[in-house]
Amino acid sequence: MKSFDSLFAELAQRIAERPEGSGTVAAFDKGIHHLGKKINEEAGEVWIAAEYQSDEELSEEISQLLYWTQVMMHKRGLSLDDVYRYL
Ligand SMILES: N=c1c2ncn([C@@H]3O[C@H](COP(=O)(O)OP(=O)(O)OP(=O)(O)O)[C@@H](O)[C@H]3O)c2ncn1[C@@H]1O[C@H](COP(=O)(O)O)[C@@H](O)[C@H]1O
Q1: How close is the Cα of 23 to the center of ligand 1, in Å?
Q2: Which domain holds residue 64?
Q3: Other CB atoms closer than 10 Å to residue 50's CB: what's the count?
Q4: Coiled coil: which residue ranges (predicted)?
Q5: Which atom of ligand 1 approaches the CA of 14 most closely?
Q6: Whose CA is closest to atom 10 on ligand 1?
Q7: Interacting residues of 57 by C-beta distance below 8 A, sequence separation 6+
Q8: Residue 51 domain-assigned?
Q9: How confident is the model at residue 79 (pLDDT cuts 50, 70, 90)?
Q10: How many structural domains does the chain have?
Q11: Is position 42 within any domain?
Q12: Residue 71 maps to which CATH number?
């Protein structure tokens, strides 16, 4: 089972190794503006799912929001500890 920390490490590896066909690498290269829009979009989908959809659908939307937030963290060069210190 993947965790927040293991996904973060996996994304770091993808971004460093740039494997062919990686959506993460393509999104990373598009930049902050693109990533910000994805975060906004997924946050809206989390809200709608929480209001109207099943626990399963909500869980999937939350996973996508976490993913896009992590890509943004990598784009800005933040570590997990940079964020965890505020939790
Ligand atoms: N966990 C995720 C993940 N969550 C969300 N996404 C992306 O976010 C999109 C969210 O879907 P939407 O609901 O917005 O659907 P969509 O509008 O059809 O998507 P787009 O057309 O906007 O891409 C998905 O299509 C994926 O592109 C993810 N992309 C990758 N991962 C994981 O990241 C790792 C690296 O994967 P690569 O990107 O293939 O290197 C792997 O473990 C993947 O499982």
Answers
A1: 7
A2: 4-77
A3: 13
A4: none
A5: 40
A6: 64
A7: 49
A8: yes
A9: very high
A10: 1
A11: yes
A12: 1.10.287.1080
